[in-house]
Design a protein that fits this description.
Largest sheet: 7 strands, mixed
CATH superfamily: Ribonuclease Z/Hydroxyacylglutathione hydrolase-like
Radius of gyration: 17 Å
Number of helices: 6
Helix content: 25-40%
Distance between the termini: 42 Å
Structural class: alpha/beta
CATH class: Alpha Beta
Number of domains: 1
CATH topology: Metallo-beta-lactamase, Chain A
Shape: globular
Strand order of the largest sheet: 1-2-3-4-5-6-7
Strand content: 25-35%
């Protein structure tokens, strides 16, 4: 599908439902989950463009901490280091069990964020043999150095997470890991 067609299709679908913009600091309870919004802020500012394209759109991603009874997850779309740095000082950010890694594991990461959330498991959603070179080898080394278990969709296929502390992957190899 062409991006314009997908965009128009999404707009038609979304026009039928009520949409609200979430902002940093908001918290919601949905189906037993506590969801805390860490980004965007009301004023997002202008961020320096990093090498490559898409920095402005990447930094418009939504960042959340999702807490279930036995599981905490941090997700932040394609956010890049300037916003990752801002989020690091957000009081709603805390240690998590799982980190869905920003921007497919690109080289552009703010490592103090990783230290603050201190995940047990990191998940990288990335296409096999992508032209961007994601995930970055230096980032993989940072996870290994910190003892974070790493799962990648390019190696494991689909990844399903369930509480308490279980991950199943499908694809080339089917296996399970437990942590905690």
């Amino acid at each position: 599908m062409q991006p314009e067609f997908s965009y128009q299709n999404a707009i038609r679908t979304l026009s039928k439902i009520k949409i609200s913009q979430v902002l940093s600091g908001q918290q919601f309870k949905i189906a037993g989950a506590q969801i805390s919004v860490l980004w965007p802020e009301r004023y997002q500012g202008n961020f320096k463009s990093l090498p490559g394209d898409g920095s402005a759109i990447n930094n418009s991603s939504i960042a959340l901490v999702i807490k279930l009874k036995d599981l905490k997850v941090f997700v932040a779309g394609d956010l890049e280091p300037p916003v990752q740095e801002i989020i690091t000082s957000n009081p709603l950010l805390e240690k998590v069990d799982i980190y869905k890694v920003c921007h497919h594991g690109s080289a552009y990461q703010y490592l103090p964020l990783l230290d603050k959330i201190n995940p047990d498991v990191a998940v990288i959603s990335v296409g096999e043999e992508n032209t961007y070179g994601h995930p970055a080898p230096d980032l993989i080394s940072e996870f290994e150095r910190r003892g974070v278990k790493l799962l990648r969709t390019d190696r494991s296929g689909g990844i399903a997470i369930s509480a308490p502390n279980k991950i199943r992957v499908t694809g080339k190899d089917w296996w399970q890991i437990r942590w905690g």
